[in-house]
Design goal:
The complex is a heterotrimer of chains A (323), B (645) and C (329). Chain A has 323 residues and is of the alpha/beta class. Chain A has 10 helices and 12 strands. Chain A has helices spanning 2-26, 66-76, 80-83, 110-122, 138-144, 147-153, 210-213, 229-239, 278-288, 297-304; strands at 28-29, 58-62, 89-93, 127-131, 157-159, 166-169, 180-183, 192-202, 206-208, 244-253, 266-275, 318-321. In chain A, strands 2, 3, 4, 5, 8, 9, 10, 11 and 12 form a 9-stranded mixed sheet that branches. In chain A, strand 3, helix 4 and strand 4 form a beta-alpha-beta unit. The radius of gyration of chain A is 25 Å and the shape is elongated. In chain A, 49% of the residues are buried. In chain B, helix 8 (120-146) packs across helix 10 (172-193). The longest helix of chain B has 27 residues, at 120-146. The radius of gyration of chain B is 34 Å and the shape is elongated. The N and C termini of chain C lie far apart (122 Å). The radius of gyration of chain C is 31 Å and the shape is elongated. Chain C folds into 2 domains: 59-187, 3-Layer(aba) Sandwich (Protein Transport Mog1p, Chain A); 196-328, Protein Transport Mog1p, Chain A. In chain C, the strands form 2 sheets. In chain C, strands 1, 2, 3, 4, 5, 6, 7 and 8 form an 8-stranded antiparallel sheet that branches. A 7-stranded antiparallel sheet of chain C has the order 9-10-11-15-14-13-12, with helices on both faces. Chain C is of the alpha+beta class and 329 residues long. The chains are: A alpha/beta (323), B alpha+beta (645), C alpha+beta (329). The interface between B and C is large, with 52 and 40 residues.
């Protein structure tokens, strides 16, 4: 009896010792952690969302009614069906940066958001996500700007940023966006990206339009990038290659951007720009602010990086007037 | 030779070895300095360090493999470490002996009787290890959630629990199993419902009570600094450690408790002892009685160190193998044998299921609770400046065992034990304080990173620290960045020339540069009464003799549009002299108004170059709250805290 | 009551004690194995020890038995002040390009060391400027290069465009320093150390070692640059002669007038020289006399003469010397 007990005990002790030994051996790390102990492996990179055969399309529609101008503008670049196919997952990046009412023009117009979302649904998109990482509290931004309700009413899913929505990204060939938190969760299952932004004056960069609007995809202490605003806008454009961009110049914020705050900051510029070239769209939008592309270094930098053309006339944009 | 004699020799040997390691942990190459002495050996032998770091990082850092030796030996022999090796245990043994002296046999036997409270140490162990395992569990849950099969797992677990409940929990093992299953299921459920990542973390807190880090910390930061002052050999200057009183109080308190109950700490508190107790469950050799019947003379209990009741049914997890019972049993009935004790033995720790679950759950929950403070995230404290090579804060906290080795080795004494600066979790972790000590972090010193036993401060080379060679691209390791306090800085706020920080900045090219500025003196406007061009008699204000002769003071004619200034070479109360080789011309008439200015060189910090070494802060003549201070921003261990693009 | 220990007990005890001895021996062996970089600081304040076997070119100059104490350091105009804080201005104003320095020690003695500084000044002229303006009083000339002297613990010389200092930590290393100097000169052939202006100073009453080149700001006047000065002792009175070859005669003339104006502005007054040479100007300032004249492209004169006569005597000697040189060419 004693002998058997001892043998069984020996066996168990042996197994325990062997388990401890092999676990230690398996997990052995002779060198210790490296300079950056965060795992580099889980960096995410956004894919190219553009449709190659539709590159370089652009329309500039004049009119005061956003629904009509955007309809016309989309038709002129080939119709929404050319961009959104059945089953597509669409992400609409709006500008919901501030908790201010739609009338102040600091954020993307809610009717425009709901209309485009509806068009995407009609074109067969299986899901439409509306997102932004605003400067003010996300919940109040989406509520007060009206974008939250607009998105929901059109059957789109509103995704507010939470701690776990971000994943680190590095922009290939980028110098600034390296291992930086990107609002990545909304991109799950997305294969088409549409950027919708208003035309606004911007104190630091001169103008905030389509390319600057991708700023809302960054997380972390992103304000550090304001030390080099033109290069960060360039890298944002490098980071996001959208399917389509809609630059809303129906009313433009001419002064006190990007927040504005008074109706007197706004001007009826009656223009809707739809393009597959985000650089051309911004260059065209600059003219609404009374600026030339050459006044905005980020536009020239983006052009030089091969992201599009600042000479938007070379795309022969379709021009129409409605209403 | 009696085995207790051998045990005593072994204890003294290891205690002296331990003290020797603490003493030689100073910067240098003499035989009594660090050289290659394996000063971390006791920490490396400590399986609690090994297991703790394994739970938090899923790695075993180099030297920590030594713990396998103690682990395997404990599995085979029992808690030999406590009775034969542990330096803290030896100190308790000694103090306990002093406390027992002169007591009667029955009193001695009474204090050595087993107490239920001795199980507290197991709960402490469970609590500390589960706090360390939080991230690992969260990761497991995340993996489970990521798999679609997790729902099946949850279902299976639920069915298993239900089944086990229905078919009766007759068996102790099954009960434990059920609890574990319930926990797994619960966690999976929580993982499905919530994203826990921001809160759940791995916090290695074993070092708070683990006797080896505790005794290292106490000797390094309390005992030796007190001894150091007696002889300049170990340390040229008196070493200071913030909050040493608390560390010392814990240490002394633990020792004094022995006067009441021998080995109080080992029996009631020590999580390492608890760990050994669990490991010794299958030990091949154990203390036991050869026959059940004995005289019940209690001699064996008189000096029982573990309080494990060798007279009756011995509690093996409590036995520290002091061998006193073996020696004292006049009847030769007790032996260290492979056969089970004739009176039976209790092999499991005396833990209740309820207590186990509470300790486990509270350990897991404690980390999110302390992290609600946000110290590892947005609410990080810029006063937390870690030594060069320290990992990111969360990773750092998952490795640092608060042993104080870096604080002892630091040649300038700037590495200090944290109070609550880094949150409750960060208690006694290393912080840099540039006010104490003899300088800032020395450019060409990397000692702390090589002495750190767990690579919480990872080993770096001088090239890496200074950003040379292959490290030129990432640049030097920055601990933070110096900020000039314009409200306290002498040239900025007080019109006093001072560029000590600029002069002492060790970085090349200097990270601190100066901008020249001429500031009019208070009461510095005067009227010229007489002059020969280079010597001016003035009215309207007066100065102390030679007050203005330092070369920093200049005269400017208030009417001079070109703002030319001439340096004052000497002065009496109402007489100013400029260099006679460059006298004033006719523009200086009697009655001219002059203004006396002081030339200030105001320091500025170039954040691109500043490495946060703190030499400037240490040298700043504003001796209380320094006028230039290093703050954690821009530290290279966390890019998110960059000041610059 | 104590029982006799069993035999096995003794054996086990012995084995354990043997194990302790083995542990002690192992630790003793272990303590000698370490990387000195980890727990000591390199002797040079801010430098990493150079990788073994890497030879600096300064090291080749060493006599036998000397080894490097620190690695070779190189400084540019941007960081020169890190090495010679305070004195950097002097070098920078004179056209400093690069400094290489390294400390060496006797292989058998740690305390016996010296440091070699090689300042690349860009030209012999610049090198001479820093050499001459820092010349230590009470030094001994050395037969090494045209411009060389030594003190108890140091050797200074100009060779080509380099100004070299060898500074020892103790006295009595003169031979070693000179050997290093000779090796330096041998290994680096140069055209000539001669600066033409030096020979223009009249030999009579000249303190030959006092010839110095003031690269800029000579005599407190910011426009006076590239001025050679030499001390003269005439009848117990010390004064300095100066001369400077300017790009053109007109330049020289202009500078002379500017300097003259500067002296007058600062309290000087014109004094009749009493000579028939109209280009000579004599100015009295603070009881001292300054003399200025221009000869061809050369601006020359006397600085801080104690008496009018002495100033004139030296001035005229200098004037005639310049005339002779002109005629001989």
């Amino acid at each position: 009896m004693n002998r058997r007990e001892f043998l069984s005990r020996t066996l168990r002790a042996g197994v325990l010792a062997a388990a401890a030994g092999s676990l230690s051996y398996w997990l052995y790390d002779g060198r210790g952690p490296g300079p950056d102990s965060t795992a580099q492996g889980n960096l995410v990179v956004l894919p190219d969302f553009s449709v190659p055969e539709l590159s370089g399309r652009m329309s500039v529609i004049t009119g005061a009614d956003r629904i009509r101008t955007v309809d016309m503008g989309l038709k002129a670049v080939g119709g929404i069906e050319a961009f959104i196919r059945k089953g597509d997952g669409v992400l609409i990046k709006v500008n919901a940066a501030f908790a201010s009412p739609p009338i102040l023009g600091a954020t993307t117009n809610p009717q425009l958001v709901s209309h485009v979302a509806t068009l995407c649904r009609k074109a067969g998109a299986s899901s439409v996500v509306v997102t932004d990482n605003p400067i003010n509290d996300p919940q109040s931004c989406f509520t007060l700007s009206g974008i939250g309700d607009a998105a929901r009413s059109a059957g789109a899913r509103l995704m507010l940023p939470t701690g776990s929505s971000f994943a680190p990204t590095t922009v290939p060939h980028g110098k600034l966006i390296r291992d930086w938190p990107l609002l990545h969760a909304p991109f799950q299952g997305v294969n088409k990206v549409i950027g919708i932004a208003p035309v606004k004056d911007h104190h630091r960069s001169g103008a905030s339009m389509i390319m600057k609007n991708w700023y809302g995809l960054l997380g972390g202490q992103r304000n550090i990038f304001h030390q080099n605003i033109n290069d960060i806008i360039l890298e944002l454009a490098m980071m996001v290659k959208p399917t389509l961009v809609i630059l809303d110049g129906t009313t433009s914020m001419m002064t006190n951007g990007p927040t504005g705050g008074s109706l007197s900051d706004l001007k009826q510029t009656r223009c809707m720009i739809v393009s597959t070239d985000q650089v051309a769209a911004d260059a065209c939008g600059a003219s609404l602010l009374g600026k030339r592309a050459a006044d905005l270094p980020f536009i020239l930098k983006a052009q030089n990086a091969g992201l599009g053309t600042a000479d938007y006339e070379s795309l022969n944009p379709a021009r129409e007037a409605v209403g | 030779m009696k085995i207790v004699t051998v045990r005593r020799i072994s204890q003294v040997f290891f205690l002296l070895l331990f003290f020797w390691f603490c003493i030689v942990s100073t910067f240098g190459e003499h035989w009594w300095q660090l050289r290659g002495w394996p000063v971390n050996w006791f920490l490396q032998l400590d399986p609690l360090v090994h297991v703790g770091v394994m739970l938090t990082t899923q790695t075993v850092y180099a030297g920590l493999s030594w713990a396998l030796v103690t682990t395997v030996l404990t599995i085979v022999l029992g808690r030999f470490f406590c009775g034969w090796v542990c330096p803290f245990g030896t100190l308790h043994h000694l103090f306990g002996y002093l406390g027992k002296r002169g007591r009667t046999l029955s009193r001695k036997a009474a204090v050595n009787a087993y107490q239920r409270g001795q199980s507290i140490k197991y709960y402490i162990l469970i609590f500390l290890l589960s706090a360390a395992a939080g991230a690992l569990m969260a990761r497991a849950v995340r993996t489970a959630v990521a798999l679609a099969a997790s729902l099946w797992l949850l279902t299976a677990v639920t069915i298993a629990i239900v089944a086990l409940t229905i078919f009766g929990l007759t068996n102790q093992l099954r009960k434990t199993g059920t609890i574990l299953l319930a926990l797994v299921g619960g966690w999976t459920l929580v993982g499905l419902l919530y994203s826990m990542e921001p809160m759940i973390g791995a916090s290695l807190q074993t070092g708070l009570l683990d006797p080896i880090p505790l005794v290292y910390r106490s000797v390094n930061l309390v005992l030796l600094p007190l001894v150091d002052s007696a002889s300049p050999t170990l340390s040229v200057t008196q070493r200071h450690y913030e909050g040493a009183w608390l560390i010392g109080t814990v240490f002394l308190g633990a020792l004094l408790m022995n006067l009441r109950t021998p080995r109080f700490y080992c029996r009631y508190v020590c999580p390492l002892g608890a760990f050994y107790g669990v490991l010794s469950r299958f030990s091949l050799w154990r203390i036991g009685k050869r026959q059940d019947q004995c005289a019940q003379c209690q001699w064996c209990e008189a000096d029982c160190e573990g309080g494990c009741e060798p007279t009756g049914t011995i509690r093996l997890p409590e036995c520290v193998l002091c061998m006193n019972c073996l020696d004292q049993c006049g009847h030769g009935l007790i032996s260290y044998q492979t056969a089970p004790s004739a009176s039976g033995a209790i092999v499991s720790p005396d833990m209740s299921r309820r207590g186990f679950v509470v300790a486990l759950a509270s350990g897991i929950a404690a980390v999110p609770m302390v992290r609600l403070g946000g110290y590892t995230d947005q609410n990080w404290n810029p006063a937390v400046i870690r030594p060069p090579g320290a990992l990111r804060e969360a990773d750092f906290l998952s490795r640092c065992i608060k042993c104080g080795q870096c604080m002892r080795i630091c040649p300038t004494n700037i590495i200090q034990p944290a109070g609550l600066e880094a949150g409750l979790e960060g208690l006694w972790t290393p912080l840099l304080n540039f006010r104490v000590g003899t300088s800032g972090c020395q450019l060409n010193c990397i000692a702390c990173s090589h002495v750190c036993p767990t690579a919480a401060i990872r080993p770096i080379s001088l090239e890496e620290k200074l950003g040379r060679g292959v490290f030129a691209e990432p640049g030097p390791i920055r601990l933070g960045c110096a900020f000039v306090d314009h409200g306290r800085c002498l040239p900025w706020a007080m019109d006093k020339p001072c560029i000590v920080c600029q002069e002492t900045c060790p970085v090349s090219p200097k990270a601190i540069f100066v901008r020249e500025y001429y500031s009019p003196l208070r009461n510095g406007v005067a009227e010229v009464v007489r002059s020969n061009g280079s010597v001016l008699e003035i009215a309207g204000t007066s100065f102390q003799a030679a007050q203005l002769s330092t070369g920093d003071y200049f005269i400017r004619l208030t009417t001079d549009p070109t703002n030319t200034r001439r340096p004052i070479v000497d002065n009496a109360d109402r007489v100013l002299a400029v260099d006679p080789r460059t006298p004033f011309g006719p523009e200086l008439a009697i009655g001219s108004r002059i203004e006396i200015q002081v030339r200030l060189q105001r320091p500025q910090v170039d954040p691109k170059l500043c490495i946060g070494c703190g030499v400037c802060e240490h040298e700043c003549p504003v001796s209380g709250k320094r006028a230039i201070r290093v703050s954690g921003e821009n530290e290279s261990r966390n890019k998110r805290r960059s000041l610059l693009l | 009551m104590a029982v006799q220990p069993e035999k096995t007990e003794t054996l086990v005890g012995m084995a354990i004690l043997a194990l302790l001895v083995v542990i002690a021996a192992g630790i003793l062996m272990r303590q000698s194995r370490y990387d000195p970089q980890w727990f000591t600081m390199s002797r040079s304040e801010h430098e990493i020890p150079q990788a073994a076997g890497e030879l600096s070119h300064l090291q080749e100059l060493l006599p036998d038995g000397w080894v490097p104490l620190t690695p070779l350091e190189t400084f540019s105009p941007e960081n020169l002040s890190d090495k010679i804080n305070g004195k950097a201005e002097l070098y920078l104003a004179a056209g400093f390009q690069k400094l290489e320095s390294q400390r060496f020690k006797r292989s058998d003695q740690d305390d016996s060391w010296l440091e070699l500084f090689v300042f690349d000044m860009g030209s012999t002229r610049n090198a001479f400027a820093v050499f001459s303006t820092q010349r230590r009083t009470g030094s001994t000339p050395v037969d090494l290069t045209r411009h060389a002297y030594q003190t108890e613990n140091a050797l200074f010389f100009v060779h080509g465009r380099d100004y070299v200092e060898v500074i020892a930590a103790e006295e009595g290393l003169a031979d070693e320093m000179l050997a290093i100097g000779r090796n330096f000169v041998e290994r680096k052939p140069v055209q000539s150390d001669e600066l033409s202006e030096q020979s223009l100073f009249p030999r009579k009453n000249l303190n030959a070692e006092s010839i110095a080149l003031l690269a800029s700001d000579a005599f407190g006047f910011s426009r006076l640059n590239n001025i050679f000065t030499a001390k003269y002792n005439i009848a117990g009175q010390e004064m300095r002669a100066f001369l400077s070859v300017r790009p053109s005669g007109a330049d020289a003339q202009q500078l002379a007038e500017a300097y003259h104006a500067f002296l007058l502005e600062n309290g000087g007054s014109d004094v009749d020289s009493g000579t028939n040479l109209p280009e000579i100007k004599l100015i009295e300032i603070f009881d001292l006399y300054e003399l200025i004249f221009v000869h061809g492209r050369v601006l020359a004169g006397v600085h801080e003469a104690e008496s009018k006569d002495a100033a004139l005597e030296l001035g005229l000697t200098l004037y005639r010397e310049l005339q002779e040189v002109d005629e001989s060419q």
